[in-house]
Amino acid sequence: MANTILVGAQWGDEGKGKIIDVLTENADIVVRYAGGNNAGHTVFIGKQKYVLHLVPSGILRKKKLCVIGNGVVIDPVGLVDEIKGLRKLGVKVGDNLVVSETAHVVLPYHRELDAQREVLKGKNKIGTTKRGIGPAYGDKAARVGLRMIDLVNPKRFEEKLRLRIKENNEVLRALGAKPLSFKQVLKEYHAAGKQLKPFVANTVVLLHQAMRRGDNILFEGAQGTFLDIDHGTYPFVTSSNTTAGGASTGSGVAPNKMDEVVGVMKAYTTRVGEGPLPTENAEIADLLHGMGREFGATTGRARRCGWFDSVATRHATMVNGIDKLAVTNLDGLDTVETIKVCVAYRHGRARYDFVPNDAQTLAECEPVYVEFEGWHTPTDKARSWKQLPPKARAYLKAIAELTGAKLAIASVGPSRDQTIFV
Question: What is residue 333's three-state secondary structure?
């Protein structure tokens, strides 16, 4: 397996949690390298459902080391609660989890600022989860952020927090929000820091020692390509680099140490929140929601749904250097009569074979479709390529060819055994 980066090739929620869980069988270490607890990975093991926000999905397998890298922003209180929740479900969380000492901390004023800024945007809101992720990354870029290495040093943390609360309370008052209590925040975060201190370490050194041993490392992406701060549908994006390049900056493992990139995409397209979605379609959205599918793991919001967009996934292949594809949720299309696939965009007289960088232009684009016959056969029991209906195989081959990468995995359900290696 060597060093593998797994990324979302759409707008997030592609089913990465399940694919990571499957690939972790052959990995020694799983590294989360970007994002915060605004992300959610859902994994089913038997009938038990696990929803992970900060802890890498590898935690659900024995004898795997899980690392939260320096590129992640961490809500310490949220992480403590997540660890407690996993332990209640019988999942071991101890020396199998390590947290980077240079990962930045999400604080209550980040969440308040996130919410207030969204209110100010009105109809132009981004659709943020209001978890404080953007403001935390903003402080990181402004060089005023607090890190895990500060959190686990009580005296230093108190001094730095006092200054940050004082400054941010002025901003919150100006926005019409209630100021925060320094004592209350300090008490809450001191308690979280005390519980997290045993997990905190220099993860860059740890990962390089592991590579010298010959360990296989899986780098776990959060969100998707088109939520990337640089390459996504800006400003309707998250605040981190969700693409493959983020694996190096978010972990300290150099690009020339990476061996392959696996891109995960649904057999159709979804996104949560605001922003352009060229293939959005009410009919397929109603179908999928009616099946109880496509509700956000983090927020519970109904996802917006549309036909497969090969223009977007081809762009994602280019940006990420995707070598292999994992296509999920094929079974969601089992009852569809005619399946559409977007192969280009039309904007007035212009035709686009790539994703325009301007979100307004993308929102005005009309998709150019080709159609495929549906297979009208349940695929959830298929366990091999040959067991898939011929029309389902033809569809998978076509979207892989349009995307420009090799099809490696087809998923026909949430369980581990509902995974077909092509």
Answer: helix
The answer to whether the peptide bond before residue 56 is cis (omega within 30 degrees of 0) is no
Tens-place pLDDT, residues 387-414: 999 999 999 999 999 999 999 999 999 9
Of 173, 196, 219, at which residue does a domain stop? Answer: 196
What three-state secondary structure class fits 119?
A: helix
Residues 42 and 27 in one domain: yes
Point out the catalytic residue in the list 41, 104, 110, 315: 41
Residues 64 and 209 in one domain: yes
Over residues 48-85, the pLDDT tens digits come to 889 899 999 899 999 999 999 999 999 999 999 999 99
- 13 in catalytic set: yes
- Distance between alpha carbon 226 and the CA centroid of its chain, in Å? 11
CA neighbours closer than 13 Å in the CB half-sphere of residue 288:
26
Q: Which of 250, 193, 190 is nearest to 223 (CA)?
A: 250
Rounded CA gap, 253 and 168, in Å? 34
pLDDT tens, 236-266?
999 999 999 999 999 999 999 999 999 999 9
Give the containing element (helix H, strand E) for 372: strand 366-373
Question: Nearest-CA neighbor of 36 among 171, 149, 135?
Answer: 135
Domain with 108 in it:
104-196
Report pTM.
0.93
Indicate the number of domains in the chain: 3
405, 296: one domain: yes
Residues 243 and 296 in one domain: no
CATH number of the domain residue 246 falls in = 3.40.440.10
Q: Are residues 79 and 219 in the same domain?
A: yes
Residue of 369, 362, 264, 370 whose CA lies nearest to 313: 264
C-alpha to C-alpha distance for 316 and 300, rounded to whole angstroms = 26
